[in-house]
Amino acid sequence: MSEFWMYTETGLRHVLDIKGYSHVVFLVALLVPFVLKDWKRILLLLSVFTIGHLLAMLLSIFHILTIKASMIAFLIPVTILITAVYNLFTAGKSAKNDNITAFVALFFGAIHGLRFSEYFKSVLGGSKLVPLLEFELGIVAAQIITAVVVLLLSFVFQNFLKFSRRDFALVFSAFVIGVVLPSIIKNNIWN
């Protein structure tokens, strides 16, 4: 049981660690267009993101897929930027194609999973599959916590501060862009 909790807690802390904020910032960008009544779409997006995340980690941990860490470090903020910019163009409009959004969440989940796989390999013991599932459980718990916080902020901003749903998505997406642009600009890929 203690090993189970160790890997689960490692996944939870890895996502919620203030120093490694990219996962949370991505989730904010992904979720700001939604409100609680969109819970089915939120669940779909979080699920396919998690599936992509898990599949990429499996492929990486078992050495089936290898991508340079520097490329992944560049692609992570790019996925966040794309998601936030997409929100700027679609805020306040109804979703036209959930399949495309779900595919993008799956693909972006894979990119984020490749990043986590490097960290996970560094804490991995002998067995791989069970600890990976335990680690992923912690990541899922952190995603749920993040989703609840984003939905609570959405509720407060829209019901008490009288932001429209569109304006909430625009403001938070602009904030996300402001957070992520410096990491893209300063990335070593440009050197």
TrEMBL record:
Domain of life: Bacteria
Annotated transmembrane regions: 20-36, 43-65, 71-88, 100-117, 137-156, 168-185
Keywords: Membrane, Transmembrane, Transmembrane helix
UniProt name for this protein: HupE / UreJ protein
Protein's organism: Flavobacterium noncentrifugens
